[in-house]
Amino acid sequence: MTYEQAGSGRAGLGIITAEGDTLTLSDRIEHHYTTSLSTIEVAANQRARITTEFAEYFQNAASRPSGAHAAYVVRRTGQEDKVRVLADHLDLLGIAYGFATTASSGAGFAYHSGSTERVSIESGDLVVPAAQPKGVLTGVLFEPEAELEDSLSYDITAWALPYVYGLEAYATEDEVTWTPTAPVSEPEALPSRPVAYLAEWKSFEDARFLAALMRKGVKVRYAELPFKVNNKSYDEGTLIMTREGEGAAFDSLVIQAARYTNQHVEAVNTTRVTEGADFGSGDVVFMRAPRIAIVAGPAVSSYSLGELWHFFDEQLEYSTTLVNSDDFGSLPLFRYDVIILPSGSYGDVLSEGRLEEIQNWLREGGRLISLGNATRFLAGKDGFGLQIKPDEDDEDADSLGVRLRPYADRNRHEITEDVTGAIFRTELDNTHPLAFGYEQDYFTLKSSSRAYAWLEDGWNVGVLKEGSRVAGFAGMEALDALNNSLVLGMESVGRGEVIYFVDNPIYRGFYYSGRLLLANAVFLAGQRSVATY
How far apart are CA 255 and CA 270, in angstroms? Predict the structure, then answer.
């Protein structure tokens, strides 16, 4: 049970209500104190019923699970990092899971396609059974489409974990045989003093490995194109660490970083490839460790800033500088390679003159990353190619009829133009560094119906097309507006880049699948323009 007291964060020591009374901080404390004691009193009086129903709740979940699905299966091969992070999440929640003991097949819902199809389960796939004491919570977290009693909701309405973690997963109608023990594979022995180390780029855990290397001063490059060496294929984005120019501690630094982040590295004794570009070619880009500034202070959303701060400080473990928005006007821009604008109100921060200074900084190789309302602020400004998507509706009989809508229906009419938190299938250009490590689809969490046109002179890396809603509530008018709109884009300004995030890729810190997009924006995208070889 959650009790909320009037005043929110605005009341301070006291606030005058609409009736003219004063609501004091001591009043609010007393209200919380009283309701807390009342809750304890009722619980004590009903203790026998509460304990009985508490036990029955978990017993029923384990013996008679609700819902249409018997198990949730997550493909493990090729997704090992993300599966491991999901398993950590399930451990924290006390949800039981295991790993398939044998290969099998059956009918199930495929999250990535949004349809029921024939599911092939591989031995070692992660299995979450529906019948377990935490079965109700399991169903809530894995149900493909949350059921709403009413569309008038003020919070997000989609949160299925396969979308949150960007996983290939299935909700099956049949039970799956599983064991709690994960299959173990012995790590390959690395040769002594190899010419280079290689590491894949498929998950946020790979970005943590890169950040650890950069903290140690190891020089890192990434491949812009797929390649093959020693008869093994590597995707674009693969990290390459060569011995040339490194000191005696090179091997230990790479291996220590890999162990610290639990990542796998491979060693090769050549810089020549059998297919693709050699390690010394122009298609292998040197990455300069970026100096990052994040705008903070009264102009920005405390939520957006907190998410970013936690992302860099706790999740990525990479140093940044927080700059108060009141001081941003005098910030020496050229001390930084990347400046991040959290969602916020920038009218008093980014004056016309300051925007001109930012344009000059961009032309010299700076990288500007905007999120949420910061992206909205830049739309239509001189020097920025982002534009709000025009309304395509004509003034026909239907639109004129809206003007005669009943007053009592005003809330339901407004919700038709809103998205309170729904998941949309985003089509990615995964040949662009901003989308390295992803398949062609990414599931974005939208909490706004604000729509932007595709960039005319830039890279539309992530876009929505018609019929892109996957889960959660979105109003009819909002769905029409979001058709053929931008989710993620990048445009060049001289030697620099502007990267637009329309949605929050790290929403509330829990939306794991968007973390790699932000890491791409910080580490990969735009490095070619400032690279040195």
Answer: 19
